[in-house]
Amino acid sequence: MAKLILSFNGAVVGEHELTKETTTIGRKPTNDIQVDNLAVSGVHAKILTILNDSFIEDLGSTNGTYIGGEKITKRALNDGDVITLGKHELRYENEAASGEDGDFEKTMILTPGSTDEKEVTVDKKVEASIGKIASDLAAAGAAGSDGPGSARLTLLSGANSGKSLEITKVLTTLGKPGVQVAAITRRPLGYFLIVVDTGPEGRRPLVNDKEIGSQAHPLMDSDIIDVAGVKMGFYQD
Amino acid sequence: MSLKNNIDIYGQTDVGSVRDHNEDAITTNPDIGLCVLADGMGGHKGGEMASAITIGTVFERVTEDIQHIKNGQIDKDTGFTLESKTVHDAVILANSNVYISSSENEKYRGMGTTVVVVLFYDNRFTVAHVGDSRLYRLRDGKLEAVTRDHSLMQELIDRGFYTPEQARTSMNKNLVTRAIGIEEMVQVDITEDVAMVDDIYMMCSDGVTDMIDDELIEATMLNCGTDLEKMASELIREANDAGGKDNISVICARPIKPFPAKNSLFSRFFDIFS
To answer: Mind telling me how many Å the CA of A43 is from chain B's nearest CA?
Structure first.
């Protein structure tokens, strides 16, 4: 079981076991760990505990959260880490985190929203936390679970300037054969521009005036693409 | 048109240094450019059963259905090619088959598997995956992960709690958020992309990626040039040298010459521009 040892001016003032998935730290008494000192914000930081690992997140505190002198926003905690909030210190202790990677079979978690109670677990520790992890992730909002929104290209040069083309296919080809050819592919994480043919002059398409590399180049909303001399704006909802 | 002479494919699987049986399964159909890899999970013989059912279902369904597809068509609802839809439907069927098997047999209750499928056609490829088995691409000397894991670790990385390096050494790395056979429905990630000559595609189970980092994978692949057999066995050897804690599977594929379809989506006038 991981725990935090709270001290002030070198003297230990408390010890807290990390039993919950979310442990809040701050000056207000509503926090799981109350640190009654003006240098600590009302709700200063929180610790997310998933099975054997814990992570700290600063919640926009006035004076910041530091580990080993470094100001942090989000960080995984290692056994022995000392977290500084204002003038207090919290020492993280977790022997399990630094232990050997045991015979951990691959296990599954049901994603949030699933109504099926069936789970596959091999390790008892896993079984205890599974439902809580799923709801925690749901609360935080699953990253990229819905896929990227729709996107379009708006021509910015040439006779068709101003015309918009909706990107409906997963893989869309663009360019002029013999001059320069590229493709835009839609992946779960977003849209990417890829060179297909650099043409006789061996030049690659530009994104925001810079030539892209040979790897898939992630496209951001409002990027300006130049393929075969035609400028287009890439817009994503 | 057989793709056997256009795309070089080689796959290998190994039980690793710790486990006593292999729950990974791989299969390929070089004639149609199909590669399937699955990493099974579940007690008793469940893992082996789940991965075997999955590669078998996908192999049969895609091999059969691809003959009836005319290249160059797009599914209007999703924007995917019909080839992608074929792969997608095959994975959904595999999910059903595993789910039903596990409901009907007490000893297979709760079994599941990851899966990653790659199908090459018309100078492009479709990759479908569920779980944390991956597809990488080596192009111009640089390694790129094409798929993104469906795992707790990836969720934490995406949210900024972990860097990929930290995730590799965490104890929580074997928790997948999606798997084949666990629920009646499953969401399959599909990506379509261009396949260029001399690209090297590498599919692997986490028996590789949990043991060695991307830098070593890249260096190992570069060192093997175009010898895919050497590449697969070297990656397996490296994973075993690093501990081999899980089953290890690798499938490598390299387009050696262009493979346009008869009415290639690339030869028709372009989607955008005239």
So the answer is: 19
Instruction: Answer for the pair B2, B31: CB distance below 8 angstroms, yes or no.
Output: yes
- Put simply, the chain B residues between 122 and 141 with a CB less than 8 A from any chain A CB are 124, 139-140
Q: How confident is the model at residue B267 (pLDDT cuts 50, 70, 90)?
A: low
Q: Do B191 and A170 touch (CB under 8 A)?
A: yes
- Residue A172 CA to residue A185 CA, distance in Å, equals 6
pTM of structure: 0.78
Identify whether the C-beta of residue B166 lies closer than 8 Å to the C-beta of residue A99: no
CA angle B109, B111, B115 (to 5 degrees): 155
**Interface membership of B177 toward A (CB under 8 Å):** yes
Residues 6+ apart with CB under 8 A from B20: none
| Torsion sign, CA atoms B107, B109, B114, B116 | positive
As given in the structure block, the two tokens for residue A10 are 């070198």
CB atoms B79 and A196 under 8 Å = no
Kindly report, residue by residue over A169-219, the tens digit of the pLDDT: 888 888 887 888 889 999 888 999 998 888 888 889 999 999 998 888 999
- For chain B, the distance separating the N- and C-terminal CA atoms, rounded to the nearest angstrom, is 30
**Which residue reads 């990417």 in tokens?**
A192
Q: Tally A–B CB contacts below 8 A.
A: 156
Cα A129 → chain centroid: 21
Give the closest-approach CA distance of A11 to chain B in angstroms.
30
**B148 vs A188: CB contact, 8 Å cut-off?**
yes
CB contacts, 8 Å: B39 with chain A: 106
Tell me the residues of chain B between 8 and 67 that have a Cβ less than 8 Å away from chain A: 18, 39, 41-43
What's CA A77's distance to the chain center, in Å?
16
Nearest to A108 by CA among B99, B76, B34: B99
Q: Which of A145, A150, A144 shows the shortest CA–CA distance to A114?
A: A145
Among B184, B245, B272, whose Cβ lies nearest the Cβ of A153? Answer: B272
ipTM over 0.95: no
For residue B180, the tally of other CB atoms under 10 A from its CB is 32
> pLDDT tens-digit profile of B66-112?
999 988 889 988 899 999 999 999 999 999 999 999 989 888 888 99
pLDDT of A202 reads 85
